[in-house]
């Protein structure tokens, strides 16, 4: 009996490995890439938003884009609705450092109820470039159905609430028109998960569909690990004034030195 039980357990474990996808597992599991909302490497959070354009299936209760600003808080989010869009801004420039440069947080209540979105970045606010994203979910997912996170990569919403999906600008380092050391805008685009949207390998993307009231991707926050601070206008003004004063001082000293070197017999 004990031997049969061990065989049963081994079979279940093996089945889990057989059905697991090729990508990182859920938050808290070995090999996960999830970024905790209180990770000390997070240097800053989104401070502003532009162009919040919610799609269908969102009630007014969940249409407060300010809820996506500041630190992660799964109880305070803005819903995008089907194919909805929002752009986040920051107090400085996101730059391409070692490893992940920023993370996008959703508010899922479990490791398998995952609503997905594309992530795009821009240096100028006009030209946006999309991170590649991949989905191996083979068939449609019902409204409260499940997704194996090991079948998802490069899409926001891979992890449960309190844990962000990381994005590394190095993946876009050769894209013309994008300065990966001066990213000022992050755009989140909900994916309608009925299979009509294709991933970067032309596979259909499935996630829980339909969802209503707080439909689509529920954006909690965007945390930045590599953030170059931009000086406040007053600080910048003081810096410029200091440079001017230093230049005038050096110019005055140069003139004094030149006068001292003139031959006294040549002076008027």
Strand and helix map with partners:
Blueprint: H1 2-19, E1 35-36, E2 44-45, E3 48-53, E4 78-79, E5 85-94, E6 102-106, E7 117-122, E8 129-130, E9 134-135, E10 152-153, E11 163-167, E12 183-190, E13 194-198, E14 204-206, E15 218-224, E16 227-229, H2 233-260
Antiparallel strand pairs: 1-11, 2-15, 3-5, 4-15, 5-12, 5-16, 6-11, 6-15, 7-8, 7-12, 9-10, 13-14
Molecular structure report:
With 268 residues, the chain is α+β, with helices and mostly antiparallel strands. 17% of the residues lie in helices and 26% in strands. The protein has helices at residues 2-19, 233-260, and strands at 35-36, 44-45, 48-53, 78-79, 85-94, 102-106, 117-122, 129-130, 134-135, 152-153, 163-167, 183-190, 194-198, 204-206, 218-224, 227-229. The strands form 4 sheets. Strands 1, 2, 4, 6, 11 and 15 form a 6-stranded antiparallel β-sheet that branches. A hairpin with a 6-residue loop joins β7 and β8 (129-130). The longest helix has 28 residues, at 233-260.
Compact summary:
The protein has two helices and 16 strands.
Q: CATH fold name, please?
A: Jelly Rolls
Q: In angstroms, what separates the terminal alpha carbons? A: 118 Å
Q: How many strands in all?
A: 16
Q: Provide the gyration radius in Å.
A: 26 Å
Quaternary organisation of the protein chains: single chain
Q: How many separate domains make up the residues?
A: 1
CATH class: Mainly Beta
Our estimate of the beta-strand percent is: 25-35%
Helix content: 10-25%
Q: What class do helices, strands and sheet pairing give?
A: alpha+beta
Give the low-pLDDT segments: 1-19, 232-236
Q: Given the C-alpha coordinates, what overall shape results?
A: globular
Mean pLDDT, to the nearest integer, reads 87
The ordered H/E elements are: HEEEEEEEEEEEEEEEEH
Give the name of the CATH architecture: Sandwich
